[in-house]
Recover the amino acids of this structure.
DNA sequence: CGGCCGTTGTTGAACCTTCAACCAGGATGC
DNA sequence: GCATCCTGGTTGAAGGTTCAACAACGGCCG
């Protein structure tokens, strides 16, 4: 078992502190100004960018990195607000399609300005161009590490079959 | 209103994807292997490092970047598990002190190994030393941007008094 | 066709977080 | 001393997430 040395500890804590404070800030901003948490905002964004502003639940889940259960609950709420509506899927009778309504699109447009401003103010404006490039690389590396990990887990699961 | 250009969008999405997947992974690991979410783990860590393994609630809240309400609920749960106990504060009769129990310390020790392994595996092992230094700088910059922001908000609030 | 398995999506319970309201105790000013 | 305000901490309700269980459908192979 290899523990973190002093320097690693510092990086780790600085990172976690920044991330929690940052996401907390964004979440609060959206909740306050637009009445939805960031996860719900991401759902609306994903739908708005899809062809026909509609997606099957499972695709939406994978785009948003959300579990199907979470998405199901979330869409139920968004539907109650009238921002999203559910349709039957013509090609697969199990399927369900979530579609952004006009009202939902308007709400998203209204929410976007404040959200983007917050992101710019607390991320892009406090970092140099070099740091931004570095952050992109770092993010991709971490992401890749997590995806291959999942693949490895699967490999292990099936190793003895 | 200045939107994000294509390059900024890429950085932003890569970053959010990495962060959500990474924290999700850590949270799930801790929940599965030790029966607590990461926020609760952080509370135990903070207490274990405090003199006498005890802290006043408000100090604990600030160390953990948690709201007092959240901490109160969390400590209630930790107390029910027998991992933490509450004591009266001698110097301030409003105060409440959370103290790590022996059992709690043992649980923390048991949880730490798996958690640190996960952090090392998905953060330190996938980044180069230069990237780690860069990540530390970036984190500090973002953190600083958020703290001065709060100060600014306060200044605005009281500007006309 | 019929059985079996994997996938899709939903549901309810348990848990965590947030928010607003609140009580109790310190601190300040008169 | 007392009114006022601020701080420390808790509480309950409302909302969000997770997990396990489930129903319904598609795909595959005999």
């Amino acid at each position: 078992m290899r523990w973190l040395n002093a320097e690693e500890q510092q990086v780790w804590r600085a990172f976690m502190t920044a991330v929690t404070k940052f996401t907390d800030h964004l979440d609060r901003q959206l909740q306050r100004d637009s009445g939805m948490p960031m996860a719900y905002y991401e759902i609306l964004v994903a739908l708005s960018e899809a062809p026909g502003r509609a997606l099957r639940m499972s695709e939406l889940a994978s785009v948003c990195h959300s579990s199907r259960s979470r998405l199901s609950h979330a869409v139920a709420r968004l539907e109650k607000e009238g921002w999203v509506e559910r349709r039957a899927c013509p090609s697969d009778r199990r399927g369900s399609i979530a579609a952004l309504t006009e009202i939902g699109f308007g709400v998203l447009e209204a929410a976007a300005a404040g959200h983007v401003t917050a992101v710019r103010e607390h991320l892009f404006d406090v970092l140099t161009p070099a740091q931004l490039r570095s952050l992109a690389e770092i993010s991709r590396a971490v992401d890749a590490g997590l995806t291959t990990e999942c693949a490895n887990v699967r490999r292990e699961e099936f190793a003895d079959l």
Remarks:
- The first strand of chain B starts at residue 54 and ends at 56.
- Residues 28, 31, 56-58, 68-69, 71-73, 76, 89, 92, 94-96 of chain B lie near DNA strand D (CB under 10 Å from a C1').
- Chain B has two domains: 6-111, 127-161.
- Residues 61 and 161 of chain B are 30 Å apart (CA to CA).
